[in-house]
Specification:
The protein is α/β, with parallel strands linked by helices and 229 residues long. It folds into two domains: 6-61; 65-228, 3-Layer(aba) Sandwich (Rossmann fold), CATH 3.40.50.150. Helices cover 48% and strands 16% of the residues. The protein has twelve helices and seven strands. A seven-stranded mixed sheet has the order 3-2-1-4-5-7-6. Helix 7 (95-103) links the parallel strand 1 and strand 2 (106-111). Helix 2 packs across helix 3 (26-35), helix 4 crosses helix 5 (53-61) and helix 10 runs parallel beside helix 12 (202-212).
């Protein structure tokens, strides 16, 4: 019978990674996990501790492993995972990237330095390889050679998502995963950080995707895996 490596499991856990990254006792993170029931309180406590509230909340409230697994199940017969190039665009804590790296894919994450620093630690704790690219990076070079680009609730945060998707088309990205965008409604675009300019481009973005890709429904109606025609 194998004995579990508790230190390894701790480092792989979301609470453990946060405690190590911020160099605080694990009880501090556990308190924050309780506070996540109240979004404003969690944000206040995170800022008071000089923690990034987006990292804290995303790690403690959301996981995206089910979505990542769903994508993988729909494409794994069609790919060689060892050479499969995945880009997690606007990765934040990169559950998608972590999942695909665990399967053996070559993963690149793209985000601001305040997130890529955390990602280097998170991937490193699991012994997973990752290439990190920081904002701003030229989209043409960023998308070149990528087999799957993941846009998980990120395109609604940029001013010109149509430009980004057009580069994906030009670089012949085989698979694109979109979440929420381009299916957001008026209520969705009233959320903080969601750009009205992105909302105005939803129709054109959808047309671009439909023209160049076949849509494959996934777990939620607003989540679509697009396969190049």
């Amino acid at each position: 019978m194998s004995v579990p490596n508790t230190f390894r499991d701790y480092r792989r856990s979301r609470v453990g990674v946060l405690a190590d990254y911020y160099r605080v006792p694990i009880v501090t993170i556990l308190v924050l996990r309780i506070a996540t029931r109240y979004k404003k309180l969690c944000k206040y406590l995170s800022c008071a501790c000089h923690f990034n509230p987006h990292i804290i909340r995303t790690m403690l409230v959301y996981t995206r492993y089910l979505q990542a697994e769903e994508i993988y199940k729909k494409i794994f017969l069609d790919i060689d995972i060892k050479t499969f190039q995945v880009l997690d665009f606007g990765a934040l804590v990169s559950d998608y990237g972590i999942y695909f790296a665990r399967q053996g894919a070559q993963v690149t994450t793209y985000d601001y330095p305040k997130y890529t620093d955390f990602l280097k630690l998170r991937f490193g704790y699991e012994g997973l390889r990752v290439t990190t690219k920081e904002v701003p990076t030229d989209y043409s070079s960023l998308f070149k050679g990528k087999d799957l680009v993941i846009f998980s609730e990120v395109l609604e945060h940029v001013d010109n998502p149509l430009e980004i998707l057009q580069v994906c088309v030009d670089k012949k990205v085989k698979y694109i995963f979109t979440s929420c965008f381009p299916y957001g409604n008026d209520v969705y675009y009233n959320y903080n950080g969601h750009k009205k300019t992105a909302q105005l481009q939803q129709s054109a973005c959808k047309d671009l995707l439909v023209y160049n890709y076949t849509s494959i429904p996934t777990l939620r109606e607003s989540e679509v895996l697009w396969k190049r025609k």
